[in-house]
Amino acid sequence: MRRLLNVRPDGGARLLLGLAPLIAIVLIYLLASTARHAANPSDKLLPTLAAMAEQMRIMAFQVDPQTGAIPLWQDTAASLRRLGLGLSIATATTLILGLLIGLLPLVRATLGPLISAIAVIPPIAVLPILFITFGLGETAKVVLIVVGVTPFMVRDLASHIGAIPEEQIVKAQTLGASTWQIALRVALPQAMPRLLECLRLSLGPAWVFLISAEAIASDVGLGYRIFLVRRYLAMDIILPYVAWTALLAVSFDMLLLTLSRRAYPWAHGRRAP
């Protein structure tokens, strides 16, 4: 008897199954929007696709006379610059601290409790402190991303390195490897696919912290634009901006997954997402 557990869709079936929920959401939205506009043609809660397309045409192709730039691309560039810088710093910090804490008991005993304590602090709660300390410029927004995702990434990577079989460490030492060589030749190759996985899982929280910071104190960015137009109930701009942000996030996630699979195919089993 063939069990449901063993049914594995092929490439085409997986694509269709993945698209089915998205198509269902779009159809439900179209039905709800049509019904609301039939009852009230000036309804703003569920704008029509035509209204959203027109607003995005303006945001994506017309220059704002006040700034001299095209809003959508200006906001996207600003947000991606902040996100990229924050995640780059977080990833580099995670790799260094994860290796040290995972391999060296002295470092684990010293920094482990500190990292655990920082990890339970809600990053949004320290946002006012960051604005007071670093001002309302770019630094505070980048630091919020770093503070928000780094502790979790470090704990996960250090735990993964700490779970490396003891036999590998003992064999390397028996062959005369130093601590530095063990870190580079034993721990680092096994840490890299996990680091990419940590980065993938941190993309969502990083976007949340970025949008929150931009909404509170910024004059450009995706979060800034969304919260700027909310006062006008401009759902025909908010919804496309949210969809664009989601598309960017999904694209980055797929890029990281593809990079991990190609660079470290041995780390991905049949059940890898």
Low-confidence stretches: none
In CATH terms, the superfamily is MetI-like
Q: Can you count the beta strands?
A: 0
Secondary-structure element series:
HHHHHHHHHH
Indicate the percent of residues in helices: over 70%
| Number of distinct helices | 10
CATH architecture: Orthogonal Bundle
What's the number of structural domains? Answer: 1
* Strand residue percentage: under 5%
Quick one: overall form?
A: globular
Mean pLDDT: 89
Quickly name the level 1 CATH class: Mainly Alpha
Structural class: mainly alpha
Cα distance spanning the termini? 26 Å
Radius of gyration: 23 Å
Assign the CATH topology.
MetI-like fold
How many strands, which pairing sense, and closed or not: the largest β-sheet? none
Structure summary:
This protein is mostly helical.
Mind explaining what this structure looks like?
The protein is built from ten helices and no strands. Helix content is 76%, strand content 0%. The radius of gyration is 23 Å and the shape is globular. The protein has 273 residues and is an all-alpha fold.
Brief descriptors of the model:
single chain, 273 residues, MetI-like fold
Write the layout of secondary structure elements.
Blueprint (H helix, E strand, L loop, with lengths): L10 H29 L9 H13 L9 H33 L1 H15 L7 H8 L3 H25 L3 H9 L4 H38 L5 H8 L5 H29 L10
Helix pairs in contact: 2-10, 3-4, 3-6, 3-8, 3-9, 4-6, 5-6, 6-8, 8-9, 8-10, 9-10
